[in-house]
Design goal:
The protein has 329 residues and is mainly alpha-helical. The chain has helices spanning 23-36, 48-51, 58-74, 92-101, 106-110, 113-121, 128-143, 156-173, 213-221, 242-247, 254-262, 268-282, 284-295, 297-325; strands at residues 10-15, 41-46, 82-86, 148-150, 181-183. The structure holds adenosine-5'-diphosphate (ADP).
Length: 329
Amino acid sequence: MTNPSPTVARTFSGIQPSGAPHIGNDLGAIRNYVRLQDEFEAIYCIVDYHALTSTHDPDRMRRQTREMAAALLALGLDPDRCTLFVQSHRPEHTELAWLLTTVTPVSWLERTPTYKEKRLNQPDDINHGLLTYPVLQAADIVMYKATTVPVGKDQAAHLELSREIVRAFNNRYGPTFPEPQAVFTEAPVVLGTDGVRKMSKSLNNTIEIFAPEEEIRRQVMSMVTDTQRILRTDPGRPEVCNVCQLQRFFGTDYLQLWDGERTARTGCVDMKRLLADRIIRHYAEARERYAELMAHPGRVDGILEAGADRLRPMAAATMTEVREKMGLR
Ligand code: ADP
């Protein structure tokens, strides 16, 4: 039995259950997950195996896995139009990852920027999973022969590595997997509240989507704006101000807003208040859906189980094909 390349193009992406989703996740990736549901056969995965490289707290893992599922559903994933599942519910992923490690030179993994970064971030826990992380990621994608992978720009190097691993496998064992292609949104890198680094949970510079309203306001009001604008009467520079940049995604009138900044008709505080209001309004319905889903955890768990079941035949077919090609039967 083989799993031929799909006749309908497939998209796949994974997201870690590593805590509260932030607007960087949504603007950089989740928006594309939602959009691509209508154009592709879409498969989305909560990658708990990946999260184990940084978290060793079982209760937290369970809670955050469900929270991430509820968040994705609240933000627009529709179980009738996509398949949403938890990585560890399809254990074939780790088997395929092992097989792919055997065609992946260690040097490729050691030069991955995220590995170098994580070594610095968690010096007391440089576990083997951190190094092989991109191989598991490649396995996730090629398990379903996905060709399109919606991610933020920070994942570009991993995707490139996935393509290299696919080429290494296909060269050795014959054409098996398509080379996956990253797709980005119009906000491939959303900066954090510090205005310089990528918005990221681990950098504590996020604007959370599902936090209480006061917390969202606090996070937005803490944003660093144009550091050269000292006085309220100084003209602003919207092209370097992160608050102004974010306005592009939460209203159609951002050019007018930018004009107000340039001419100092508005100040940074006005702009932040407006942004906080707009972010809260933009996600109001999603917040209601999130609360509703979290009040009915059985519903969320049922969607995840059904997703993993639906993928069983596809995963089994890929594993049979790969085992045969590698001489394992
Ligand atoms: P991971 O830990 O696997 O990178 P994250 O939770 O950090 O997962 O991110 C999930 C998705 O959101 C990924 O596709 C990532 O590229 C994207 N993303 C995360 N932060 C940002 C950001 N600041 N700007 C744009 N996209 C982002």
